[in-house]
Amino acid sequence: MDLNLIVLCGRLVAEPEVRRFDSGTRLIRMLVTVRAEQPHRRIDVLPVTLWDPDDEFLDDLPAVGARLWITGGVQRRFWDGENGRRSRLEIVAEHVSRRAVESSV
Known about the structure:
mainly beta
């Protein structure tokens, strides 16, 4: 069985980009940083895409620095650029929250 599942918690590092298409579809693009200490200290900046967000989320977009909890999957996007075929990995979010998931313990 294959599984494409991402769960991450990080901070928003740029203002979210909101796009609205003629079809009515809405898209939010965000850049989120995730810090790691092991095996080496590093900070990863991850592109996150959220399709058709709830109106509530759109009405109160997170500010730069906000901690976000994101679940979704990884997708590779391809396009033709000036230097030929290009691609990048991005997180396609299914859910974005500003609160930690509460345990039922």
